UniProtKB/TrEMBL annotation:
InterPro entries: Ribosomal_uL22, Ribosomal_uL22_CS, Ribosomal_uL22_euk/arc, Ribosomal_uL22_sf
Family membership noted in the UniProt record: Belongs to the universal ribosomal protein uL22 family.
A Gene Ontology term for the protein's cellular component: cytosolic large ribosomal subunit
Signal peptide positions on this chain: none
Protein name: Large ribosomal subunit protein uL22
Organism listed in the record: Leptinotarsa decemlineata
Keyword Ribonucleoprotein: yes
Length: 105
């Protein structure tokens, strides 16, 4: 995971581990768990303020979220994804030509 998404990815991984622990405590087979539904909704923003130079104040908002995660126990263990034998070929990109009204030579 690149850039600023590492914090979100670590938080989601922590949530999955917690869900796995809860399923194990409930007596479900952890190896057969499948993510059936996952949804992230925006929560209410918490408004704070940060003080700037010359007596100015800027908003300092946080953007929390609600994560909904449903795990179900499948009848069989999930299979590993199959690799396709087709080779991917690069698609030729069309070049844009600048249309100029006057040519100065």
């Amino acid at each position: 995971v690149r850039g600023g998404a590492t914090k979100s990815a670590e938080f989601l991984l922590q949530l999955l581990r917690n869900a796995e622990s809860n399923a194990d405590y409930s007596g479900l087979d952890v190896d057969r768990l499948v993510v059936e539904h996952i949804q992230v909704n925006r929560a209410a923003c918490l408004r704070r303020r940060t003080y700037r130079a010359h007596g100015r104040i800027n908003p300092y908002m946080s953007s929390p979220c609600h994560i909904e995660l449903w795990l179900t126990e499948s009848e069989s263990t999930p299979d590993a994804p199959k690799k396709s034998s087709k080779k991917k070929t690069a698609v030729d990109k069309t070049k844009r030509v600048k249309a100029s009204g006057t040519a100065a030579h």
